[in-house]
Amino acid sequence: MKLTGRLSPTFILMFLNLLVYIYTSLVGGNFIVTDDLVLQIYGQFNYAVLYQGTWWQLLTSVFVHVSIIHFITNMFFLLLFGLRAEELFSDSEYYIVYLLSGISGGIFSLLWPLRTVSAGASGAIFGLFGSVLIFMRSVVGRSVLGALLMAFLFLIITVSSTVNVLAHLGGLMAGLGVGYFMARRRRAICSLLEY
Quick check: is 65 catalytic? Predict the structure, then answer.
């Protein structure tokens, strides 16, 4: 985290996720597990998105979690990868990676059956991970193949029956793409400044 007196994007996002978890817990009447109806309203309910036009759920679902364990786990990884991302990206770049990756994860999740309900920040977090990984290799002019292999290895080892692998994949792919683009742009700017 940069010590510039500014607010840390990582802690801002963690705080927003916490506020949403408290809100959904109060609405659903349970602080351990989020109520199914609350998840259908504020998470991503594929049927509602595709047939009732609730496209805003692609964004809100990034801040909704299904249980306290889900919330704590995601916030741990957000802290882990987010603080590293802060060292590499401007605040606006950080938020772009987070939100685009989260929404991309939601879009990929639409490939699940219509009655599927998705929630959680993990797609956005995978995006931060992917963007950091590929940015670090690209900006110094090294091959990105190693970064891609490491990213997809991380994706594979997180697969389980309770994990929305499509959200993770969508977020990871968006993060890799945005991170690569930002690294190329940074290298181009540095090259111009050298002349």
Answer: no
Q: What is the pTM of this model?
A: 0.88
Closest CA relative to residue 82, chosen from 139, 124, 118 = 124
4 is a domain residue? no
3 state DSSP class of 118: strand
E strand or H helix that includes residue 53: none
92 is catalytic: no
- Domain-embedded: residue 2: no
CATH at residue 88? 1.20.1540.10
* Sequence-separated (6 or more) residues with CB below 8 Å from residue 71: 17, 18, 21, 65
Tally of structural domains, the chain? 1
> pLDDT tens for residues 95-114?
999 999 999 999 999 999 99
Of the residues 8, 104, 118, 122, only one is catalytic, namely 122
1 vs 13: CA distance, rounded Å:
14
